[in-house]
Design goal:
Radius of gyration: 17 Å
Order of helices and strands: EEHEEEHHHEEHH
Shape: globular
Number of strands: 7
Strand content: 15-25%
Distance between the termini: 56 Å
């Protein structure tokens, strides 16, 4: 038995299906034209559904996609037809709940675009190379916001250079604001 893998994580505009963010891991979906066609077909198949309160599952082009909608965005986790839907749903739940916490429960396109770097970091904390790294929304949110597991600030020795500079910039801004 192999490890569960993800073919793609997508964030699409809920009105017209245009891409807000997409990260593909499957070889058959690496071509840009193939990706756009897949996204269009997936959105067209799911746009009339109401998946605001819980995840829905759909099969398309030999894949299983689980999705959930925000105000005007749709989040998708795509796996192969052999993949367990419960695992895909758990990954989607981790993404949706972590983004909801990071964005203060404002799951709408404008807020996602204004905080796109946090969306990118959340997806990177969730899945890497198709392998599931983390599905706990609190752990993902804390890592994206550079907090430790308990929600406090991360030890400076554990930060990368860019993270340390960002942390220093925030602390400096707080000291000037006080």
């Amino acid at each position: 038995m192999s490890s569960p893998t993800i073919k793609a994580v997508l964030v699409l505009d809920g009105n017209d299906g245009t891409r807000i963010h997409a990260k593909y891991f499957a070889k058959e979906l690496l071509d840009h034209e193939t990706q756009l066609k897949f996204e269009k077909n997936l959105f067209n198949k799911t746009k009339s559904q109401n998946a605001r309160s819980e995840a829905e599952i759909v099969m398309l082009d030999r894949t299983i996609s689980v999705y959930r909608q925000g105000m005007d965005v749709s989040l998708y986790v795509v796996g192969s037809v052999e993949e367990n839907e419960l695992i895909l749903t758990e990954v989607l739940k981790g993404l949706y709940d972590s983004l909801s916490a990071i964005l203060r429960h404002q799951m709408e396109k404008r807020v996602l675009l204004e905080n796109l770097e946090l969306v990118l970091l959340a997806v990177d904390e969730l899945v890497d190379g198709g392998l599931i790294l983390e599905s706990d929304p609190n752990a993902i949110a804390n890592r994206v916001l550079m907090r430790n597991a308990e929600g406090g600030e991360t030890n400076v020795a554990e930060l990368t250079v860019s993270q340390a500079l960002e942390s220093a910039r925030k602390q400096l801004a707080r000291s000037f604001a006080a």
